[in-house]
Design brief:
single chain; mainly beta; four-stranded antiparallel sheet; 47% strand
Length: 350
């Protein structure tokens, strides 16, 4: 059954964002076999996502019709990665799978399941996030305390970096030959993408979320409530602020703003240049784990129990709410005036 935005909220949304390409109207809804647990990727007219029971879908982005689907054995996590004519995704047991975009046929699989450490102890090789592409490789954080660099051509391991942490839970970021890694123990590392050697870094007082690279700077947030801005060249700290709430999302950076979500359901916007708080909105929807999306003068933020909130990016004022009373835990995607996001179904609003 389709879930529609209420008429009153739709009127408010259309009036409030008349200058935006986004009107808040439902385009289509697709019901997968189970809840959506991955982010969304687009290539041409095809979008890709995965489900809790391990089915990976390719849909027509305009109609929501299935083009093909691929069944795996585990929950699919993180954001799928588009690499030329292939799509890559990660599943909970640590396996990375590469498929042809055109028909979903397998190209390669990296394998998963358990591995053994240097003392022959069984180590969980699972993961909690997806694979990050860059420089001909894929970078994967796994629960075996290692960052794995795989060739994007065949999935074979190029190098591994041992973090010494209690396990890695967040995907790294990549830019210009560097990998930016946040660890569960609060360590932030800058790693050479070719060699796997740690070049520099810093830290925070809690687990660090996936960093974001923008305009020559890297921004990282932490469960201790801090947000850090570092100039990549020279590894120069620019600013550090604390929002006094557990930050549970990757920073979204766009239009001079940084937006994060918190464990108590707040959406907070900071100034990109100085970290000064611009506004704060309380969703009353529980933990926010999906990275907010900034687009067309709006911020889209999904709550654990409150659906998808639509906020004015300048003021933080709520201008609408899409799909109420439903957990939105995977990253949304905004493309060509359409917002795609997943909960119990995959939704497209324009």
């Amino acid at each position: 059954m389709k879930r529609k935005i209420t008429l009153a909220l739709l009127i408010i949304l259309v009036m409030a964002v008349s200058a935006s390409a986004f009107s808040g109207r439902e385009k289509w809804t697709f019901q997968p076999d189970s809840s959506v647990t991955s982010g969304i990727a687009i290539s041409g007219n095809t979008l890709f996502f995965g489900s809790e029971t391990g089915r990976f879908y390719a849909l027509n982005k305009n109609s929501g019709q299935v083009i093909w689907d691929f069944k795996t054995s585990n929950t699919i996590y993180g954001n799928p990665a588009i690499i030329g004519d292939r799509v890559v995704f990660a599943q909970a047991d640590g396996e990375i799978i590469c498929l042809n975009i055109s028909d979903g046929s397998p190209v390669w699989s990296s394998g998963g399941n358990v591995v053994r450490d240097e003392r022959n102890r069984t180590v969980n090789d699972g993961l909690f996030d997806g694979a990050t592409p860059g420089g001909g490789m894929l970078f994967v954080s796994k629960a075996d305390q290692k960052l794995h660099a795989l060739s994007d051509k065949d999935g074979k391991t190029v190098w591994t970096y041992t973090s010494g942490s209690q396990g890695l839970r967040e995907a790294p970021a990549y830019s210009d030959g560097l990998v930016f890694l946040g660890e569960y123990d609060g360590i932030f590392s800058i790693i050479d993408a070719k060699t796997g050697k740690r070049l520099n870094g810093g830290g925070a007082g809690g687990a660090i979320n996936t960093p974001t690279v923008s305009n020559g700077n890297v921004y990282f947030s932490s469960w201790d409530g801090s947000v850090n801005a570092v100039k990549i060249k020279g590894v120069e700290p620019l600013w550090n602020v604390n929002v006094h709430d557990t930050i549970t999302t990757q920073p979204a950076v766009e239009g001079g703003k940084i937006v994060v979500g918190t464990g108590r359901g707040a959406v907070i916007a900071l100034g990109e240049n100085n970290g000064r708080t611009l506004w704060r909105f309380n969703t009353n929807g529980g933990n926010i784990s999906a990275t907010p999306v900034i687009a067309d003068g709006l911020v889209f933020a999904g709550g654990e129990a409150g659906g998808m909130f639509v906020l004015d990016a300048s003021t933080g004022r709520r201008v609408g709410q899409l799909v109420e009373n439903e957990g939105i835990n995977a990253d949304a995607l905004y493309s060509d005036g359409v917002l795609y996001f997943g909960g119990s179904a995959l939704y497209a609003y324009e």
